Amino acid sequence: MAELDISEDYEDYLAGYADILTGACATGRRLVRDELEALRGRGERAAEAGIGLRTLIHAHLVTAQAVRPQLRGPAADHLLAAITQAVDAFAEGYERAQRLAVRQEEAARREFIDDLLYGRSDLGRLAERAERFGLILAHAHAVAVAQGAEPYDDGYPVTRGIESSLLARFGDRRILLTTKDGRLICIAPGDESDVLRYFAKQAYAATDGGQVAIGRAHPGVGGVVHSYEEALNTLDLAARMHLDDPVLHAADLLVYPVLTRDRQAMADLVRTVLGPLQQARGGAQPLIDTLTAYFDTGCVAAEAARRLSLSVRAMTYRLDRIHKLTGSDPGDPVHRYTLQTAVIGARLLGWPEEGV
C-alpha cells in the first residue's frame, strides 16, 4: 500500500484508533460499545468537515500497518477483524452524517420552493436564498408546469429522468426543476425559452401524454410566482375549455382572462343570451355543445355534425332550434359574436352545471 502522510488534518479523526486496535488484539476481543460509538462520532465529524471517506479509510489502514509490527501470534491474527469493526463503525458514522445533511438540504430546498411559489417570506431574504439554488431573482424568469395522469414528487424516476436530460443538454443555465402538488415545475431565466420548450417536450413524453403550460416571463423577486400562477391558471383554463394541446402558452390565451375579468358582466351575458336554451328538451348543454362544435369548425355545419356524430340534418335542426329559443342566428355574423362570446363564458364559468 502506498505511503500516506497522516497530517494534522486527520489526527483528530484517528485519535485513539491505534490504542483501540492494540487493546482488542491483545485479548482477541471485539470492540466494545464505547469504542464503536467513539469511532462513529469521529466519522460524523469527518463528514461534517467535508473530508473524503476514501482518504480517511486509507489513513485508518496506514495506521493499522504501523500497529501490525507490534503484535505477535494470535494478537496479529486478530488485527484484520479489529480493523474491519473499526472502519465499519467509522464509515457508519460518516454515512449517518451524510444522510442527515441530505435530509436537511432537502428540507431547506422544499421550504425555499414553497416560499418562492407562494410569494411568502421576506423578498430580500428570498433573493439571497435563491442564489444557493441557482436562481438570480433580480432577472426575469418564466415557469412551466406539467401535469400527468398521476402525481409526481422530487424523488420519482420521471422527475430524475427529466432533470438528467435538462442538465445533459443545457448544463448550468440556472435552471431549477422541482415538484409541487403532484405537478412537475421548471423555472428558467426569461431569455431561455428553449429550456422550457425542451422541458415541455420531455415532460409530455415522460408523463405519457400529460399537458404542459408555460407562463410568461416576469422580472423581479415576484416574477417567478407570477409566471407560476399564470401557468396554473392556463392548466385550469384548458380543463374548462377542453383544450387538449400538449403545450399551452399563457401568452396565447390572454383573451380568456380578459373575458372573465368582470365575472358578473360575463355571468349576465351567459344568463341573458343562453338562458333560454334551458327550455329545450334535454336542457341547455347539448345545444351549447352544438354551438361549441359549430364555432370551433369555423361555422361549417357538416364538419360540426361529424364531430358530434350527428347527421347534417340533425345539426341544422339544432342550429334552427337555438335561433328560435335565443332569437340569435348562429349563421348571422352580427349575432355570431355575441353567441360565441356567451358560449366561451359558459365554459369558463362552468354553466349550466355550476350555475352563475
Please write out the topology.
Elements: H1 8-14, H2 17-27, H3 33-49, H4 53-67, H5 74-77, H6 79-118, H7 123-132, E1 141-147, H8 157-170, E2 176-180, E3 183-189, H9 193-206, E4 211-214, H10 223-241, E5 247-249, H11 255-259, H12 263-274, H13 285-296, H14 301-307, H15 312-326, H16 333-349
CATH architecture of the largest domain: 2-Layer Sandwich
Report the mean per-residue pLDDT as an integer.
89
Q: Any idea of the CATH topology of the largest domain?
A: Alpha-Beta Plaits
Whole-angstrom Rg: 33 Å
Structural class estimated from helices and strands:
alpha+beta
The level of helicity is 55-70%
Number of domains: 3
Number of strands: 5
Strand content: 5-15%
In sequence order, what are the helices and strands, one letter per element? HHHHHHHEHEEHEHEHHHHHH
Distance between the termini: 81 Å
Count of discrete alpha- or pi-helical segments spanning 4 or more residues = 16
CATH class of the largest domain: Alpha Beta
Shape: elongated
Side by side, the strands of the main sheet go: 2-3-1-4-5
Describe the largest sheet. Answer: 5 strands, mixed
Question: Runs with pLDDT <50, length 5+?
Answer: none
Domain PucR C-terminal helix-turn-helix: 287-343
Family: Belongs to the CdaR family.
Domain CdaR GGDEF-like: 119-236
InterPro entries: CdaR-like_regulators, CdaR_GGDEF, PucR_C-HTH_dom, PucR_C-HTH_sf
